[in-house]
Amino acid sequence: MFALSICNSLFVLLDGTSVLVFIVTFLLIYWSTRRHPGIPPGPGRWPIIGNLGSLAGPDKLKVFRDLRCKYGDVFALYFGSELTVVLNGYEAIKDAFLKQGRYFSFRPENDFTARSITTDLVFGNGPEWKAKRAYIMNAFRDICFIRNGAVLEKIVHEELDLLIDDITHIEKPFCPRKTMSLSFASVMFNILHGKRPERGDKRFQWYLDELDLGFQRFLNTQLRHYCFPWLDKLPGDLLLLQYTSDKSAKTIEYFDEVFKQREMNALQGSRDCLLDFFLSEDSPLARDEIWKCHHDLMAAGSETSATTLNWMILFLALYPEVQAKLHAEITRTIGKTLPAIRDRSEIPYVEAVILETLRIGSNVPLAVPHFVKEDVSFRGFLIPNGTTIIANVTSVHHDPSVFPDPFAFRPERFLDESGRVLQASEQVIPFSMGQRSCIGESIARIELFLYVTRIVQNVEFKLPAGCKRPTLNGVFGITYRPEDYNVDIAKRN
Predict the structure, then answer these.
(1) Which of 60, 113, 471, 480 has the fewest Cβ atoms nearer than 10 Å?
(2) How many C-beta atoms lie closer than 10 Å to residue 110's C-beta?
């Protein structure tokens, strides 16, 4: 009897423990999979990973198109426990970033952004960010746009002289990606330092390789932080925090070297380049954060434009009739003379080709994330304080209701019936919109015009004979670039 009593007590205890475990497990699963009440619709949420499973698939942009078709222009996803609202279509993005910009013009504030190597210029908020942005925009104006942009024209044409000389001596199929990245990066370096980097500078090439690697790794690293933040408590650098720290230290060392060179060589009080402005007494940038601002401007000011030109070369090779018409328009209007900023309105077909490339390529497809710092009512939904906001730019650029046959490369869609008047489309938004639009948009548009015009004046791109035709598949990351491809380059007479 005594033994039976003990057994009964154990069964009761086990049953109670099992019930408790069941209840706790149920509550944890419920808590980790429930969706906040009132938020935009979206797929069911899984424990720990949230909605990462819903993003599975080789073509991430198609995944977002499918989610929009199912859930509408405003839907919500969870990356781990982080709530993210995705805006689709021009009107939804405009409503948020322009009409309700006071709520949607913040950048995310979380552990991941705090540990990244970005400055207030990209992820800052509040008065300090506004002061730095205004200061840098004024510096751009004073450096690049005096005498109707003559300084910027000179910098770009000096770089194009070298680029065209290089590519016209290439005699075999050639992948343009790294060459174009180096060229645009050299322009931005020149604006920052008052001179271009030395040709063959291995340290500068190392830095560009690090930038490229950072662009590729950023999203994956961000998702690990959101879904598995506890990994930083385990042995090993599973969240790449030490890796990031080591890279930051090497980048700081590199920038210290180039800063010291400028300080030694610049005249007292000179303001001939951005670094002069950063180092001046009235600069809102502290000395120890100048390198971060420099890093942000190099990354944003070179890689996005280079990616656009990389797409354009591919389109010109795939659509030789467009390339022939582009060359004919340039020849008819300015011949072999160097293009100038004032020529932009005279060669509308160049601008149309650039717009069509920006539209299809969508080189920053999900823009830079925004953030809300208080509960916001938007289109009948609740967007809770602390939510990340993503603008799906490709949902605008590839919208068949706005751009019929959206994946066909047709620059003529931006011209009137005469082909002589550019129909500027407000719905091409590669630089985003509102208070957080790209700080270098004006420079980028001028660069692209000068690059496209000079290059097409001098060379023709062709698909290599006997090679597989390139696809329009992209490599998804912070930027969206075409898969590497080769072209033949023929020098024009």
Answers:
(1) 471
(2) 16
User: How does DSSP classify residue 300?
Assistant: I
What φ, ψ does residue 291 adopt, rounded to 5°?
Answer: -60, -35
In this prediction, residue 31 carries a pLDDT of 47
Angular region, 379: left φ>0, alpha ψ -120 to 50, beta rest: left
Show the DSSP H helices in 72-176 as ranges. 90-94, 101-104, 111-115, 120-123, 126-144, 150-167
User: 16 vs 313, which has greater pLDDT?
Assistant: 313
What SS3 state is found at 326? helix
Radius of gyration of the chain (CA): 26
Q: What is the mean pLDDT of the chain?
A: 85
Q: Answer yes or no: are the C-beta atoms of 350 and 344 closer than 8 Å.
A: yes
Phi then psi dihedrals of residue 454, to 5 deg: -65, -45
d(CA 461, CA 159): 20
Question: Which two three-digit tokens encode residue 320?
Answer: 């030789």
Give the strand order in the sheet containing 388-392.
Answer: 74-79, 82-88, 388-392, 370-371
Query: Candidates 3.50.50.60, 1.10.630.10, 1.10.260.40, 3.30.1360.120; correct CATH number of 34-491?
Result: 1.10.630.10
Residues 373, 69 contacting (CB under 8 angstroms): no
DSSP 268-290: TT--SSHHHHHHSTT-SS-GGGH
pLDDT per position as a tens digit, 249-259: 777 777 777 77
**Token code pair at residue 310:** 């990389």
Residues belonging to the binding site are 438
Higher pLDDT, 142 or 244: 142
Q: Measure CA 85 to chain center.
A: 18
Q: Are the CB atoms for 387 and 109 separated by under 8 Å?
A: no
Give the count of beta carbons closer than 10 Å to the beta carbon of residue 329.
21
Stretch 340-350: mean pLDDT? 94
Which residue matches tokens 């690697």? 213
- Per-residue pLDDT tens for 387-441? 999 999 999 999 999 999 999 999 999 998 888 778 778 899 999 999 999 998 9
Q: What is the dihedral of CA 464, 469, 472, 476, to 10 degrees?
A: -80
Q: Which residues participate in the annotated binding site for heme?
A: 438
